[in-house]
Amino acid sequence: MLDGMNAKHSILAARAVRWMAGLLLWLAAEGGSAGTGGPDGAAVLEFADGRVRCVVESGQLAGAAELAMKTALRTLPPPEAPSTLAVRLLPPPPFYKRWFGAGSPHGMQREDEIALQPEADGVKLAFRLGHEMSHWLVAKSNPRRPPLWLDEGLAQRIGAQAAAAAGRTEKRGLARTPPDGWEACALTLDELTGLGDYGGSPAASGAFYWQAERLVDALCERLGRDDFLAYLSILSTPPVPGWQAPLRGRWWFNDSDFEALARAIAPSTPNPTVPPK
Ligand SMILES: [Zn+2]
């Protein structure tokens, strides 16, 4: 028979066991919750006469993946050899990361796979897919990754084009808003093109992505698609020259052209907008 104190202990112990069991059940449910992809309509998409195949793990990604790859292939060539890209959804971040607001990347590309966080907004999904598909196509067609500003600036540009296409499909206008507080972290042209790592605060990395995209936009406008791809190839093939050398030597850029590029990435430059169609 239990005395009063033991009875109180055993009630507390039973409550603790029930609480732990509840927590474990909740954690198990969190770990296997919906939205992790799975066999909900996997699709195989083909582009460029079958030279590019996308195996999309989740049916909810198929529409955005098709639109994003078509957009990316308008700028970037398909790989020489037929290639297959897997696109899959990551599980949602664990509950404690959501509680504490710990960030994880929205998407990543490694080798022949792109993994994305679940995203209900079709325009944001198209942006992230376009961004990662740009990295994949650039990596497949060049011996090494281009400098960071060029790789990320082009990925942002193609992501923005894919988002604009998705926005048109959904009849939404898209005004590009620069990241908060980026002006205070704005880089000079030399700093931007010399950066080897994102680093820094969210505002600093926001400034980097924003300015890299502006610089790639300015170069694409000035060079046109074919010459921009030739430039991309030069900067992705060892021995890699300084970023200015081919522009000066092959495309006759002079100091005033580089001053124009510096203005294109400066905080005083008006924001580009994509008007609704
Ligand atoms: Zn990227």
Strand order of the largest sheet: 1-2-3-5-4
Shape: globular
SS elements, strand count: 7
- Ligand catalogue: zinc ion
Portion of residues in beta strands equals 5-15%
Extract low-pLDDT stretches: 1-9, 19-38
- Secondary structure class reads alpha/beta
Main beta sheet strand tally, sense and closure? 5 strands, mixed
The total tally of domains equals 2
Radius of gyration over all CA atoms, rounded: 24 Å
Q: Quote the average pLDDT.
A: 84
Helix content: 40-55%
Number of helices: 10
Order of helices and strands: HEEHEHEEHHEHHHHHE
Distance between the termini: 80 Å
Outline the structure in words.
It is a single chain. The protein is an alpha/beta fold and 277 residues long. The chain folds into two domains: 34-141, Zincin-like, CATH 3.30.2010; 144-277. 53% of the residues lie in helices and 10% in strands. It has helices spanning 4-31, 59-75, 95-100, 122-141, 148-169, 189-194, 202-223, 225-234, 245-249, 255-264; strands at residues 43-47, 52-56, 83-89, 107-110, 113-116, 174-175, 273-274. Helix 2 (59-75) crosses helix 4, helix 4 runs antiparallel to helix 5 and helix 7 packs across helix 8 (225-234). It starts with a helix and ends with a strand. The model is unreliable at 1-9 and 19-38 (pLDDT under 50). Residues 131, 135, 152, 155 line the site of zinc ion (ZN).
